[in-house]
Amino acid sequence: RDRVEKLYGNELCDHICALSTVQHGPPDQIVWFHNKLNGRLLDSPFESGIDWLKDATRLLDLKAFKNLITILWNIWNGCNNICFGARRMMLGGPPRSHRWIKPSIDAIKINVDAAIFDSVVDIGIIARDYDGFVLGGRAVFLNYKMDIEWAEMEPLREGIMWDRNNVTRALFETDCVSLVNQFKSRQGDILIFGFRLKEIFGLLESFINFKIKWVAHSSNKVADSLCKLAINKRCTFPFNMEYPSDIHGLVLVDAC
User: Fold this and answer.
1) Domain edges within the chain
2) How many CA atoms lie within 13 A of 71 on its CB side?
3) Where is the RNase H type-1 domain (predicted)?
4) In CATH, what number does 108-255 get?
5) 207 and 169 in contact (C-beta within 8 Å)?
6) pLDDT: is 5 or 248 the higher one?
């Protein structure tokens, strides 16, 4: 377990360790999905990934399948992050900042993030102006299970709901590549996002000007830390310009 946590981090460790395992080869090597399945998911010929997933739904129980989907989603999202980052480097673009960047003088920047821990979902939202002054935000604790696709979308919806009555020009930032791509293409995948995307499109109509942008995780640290605060406190708490000292410390570190 320690090795898995070191390689994949805390968020994926529980999901990976919950999968069926069997010792294979040297003592320190573990192969997932083999026991009770005779290697069927790895060795059987499949014409497409969809066929492979359909077979997995028949072979795995509900908990194991949810863990599998969580891992696949994080791998895909991570590959997108690597692909986009590498492409910018090859094109000779400007070096990426590893901290929060101020928006233009007439805009408000809202950073959003989500985290899934065991059977709960936690959301972090923080809004700042062009001087880096905190206008408010929320840390949301949702004590129920949610598919990872919905969990990634929920903080953006929460951020828009919080912001739409106070701001006309907004820049939303998230470190979820797939979500940003969905909004840029304006095509909702019915199987994954469905009508919730259309609902969010409707909420954005209240803004005169808005933009949804992908940023690296290092530029979204405060929103991520708010998720962790919600996990630790196991409660939802909004804040305004008079925010707690623990949030103040996060903002100061992010500005350095």
Assistant:
1) 2-90, 108-255
2) 17
3) 122-230
4) 3.30.420.10
5) yes
6) 248
